[in-house]
Structure formats: C-alpha cells, structure tokens
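Input record (one chain):
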Amino acid sequence: MAGRSKTTYSSDRKIMRAAKILAAAEMILREGAGELEMGQVADKAGVSVGLAYHYFGSKSGMLGAIIHAFYDRYNKVANQYIDPDILWGVREKRRLMAVVEFLYNDPMAPVILGKMARTNQVAAVECARHEEMIEMAIRNIRSGIKRDDIGPHIDPTIAGAAITGAIRSGITHAMGMQQRPDPAKLTHQIWGMIAGALDIER
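The corresponding structure, as predicted from the sequence alone:
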C-alpha cells in the first residue's frame, strides 16, 4: 500500500461499506412498498445487522441518509450554473427541463416522492428542502425583475412560493401516471403556467 496510510485505507473501506449498505437499502425500497427493515438490508448487502446499525445508528438514520442524498442530487440540478447573461426566461426554462429530466431518471425519485412521501422521515426533510427551493425561486425572480425580464408589479415572495409548489405537484403527478408525458412536453406545459404567473412571454 505504498503512498497510502493505513488510516486512509480504513476510511476508504468504511465509505465503501456504507455505500454498499445504502445501495442495498435503496434496492429494497425500489422493489418493495417503500419500507425496509435493517435485517433485510444487512442480508442484501452481505453484512451483519450490527454493522448496518454501526454505520447508521437506526432504520431512521439509514432512511435519512438516503433521503438527504436524493435531495442533494435534486438541489445540485436545480441550483446548477446556467449562463446568467442569457434571457431570464430561456435560462429558467432550461433549469426546469433539467429538473424534469432528473426526476424522471433518478431511480429513487418515484420512491421518495411517491411510496415514501407521507412518511415522517420524508416529510421532515421535504419541509426543509421545500423552503430552500422557495428561497431560490424568490432570488431568481428578483434577479429577473432587476434585469427587466420580469415586470416590477410581480411580488417575488408570492410568485416564488406558488411556482415552486406548482412545479413540484405537476411533476410528481406526471411521474405517477401510467403513461408519463414526454419530458419536453411536460416542461413546456409547466413553463406556460410559470410564464402566466410572472406575466412574461411563454
């Protein structure tokens, strides 16, 4: 192990074991009804139940890690850098399209936003993350007003909250449909609602 300390190697092994356990837990959640038990996860991951508890403390701790990881991926897409010099509406429609594609393609999205949506773990994280997204929407709308891409008669706080909720509800509903709408068509339809709320060209 030249060039690598024992401490680094041990840390890498712990990270890999934790990732293996989480991957097993996610698979159980996807294949089942959005529920799991620590024993199931340990069996799936090929580790002892004690090791699963060692890394995550409890079932709630494990679920919390999965849910937070999902929302971290979500926020990375929603907060991605897009050239600020292009027209505000063009920029934000691209952002919306990226969010739709992410939620359509992330394997945990139907589980966390569907099967697990009403669980205490998801509800607690969702509440905090939803507020973050509202704040981001408010900042974006203020930026659009400052650039004269959105009229000054629009209240950013009201519009930000309304738009964030509508986007989430629209995409979640589409994901649960037997035949999902085409991502581009869904984005176009949701964007029409956003444009109407902000009184800008579609």
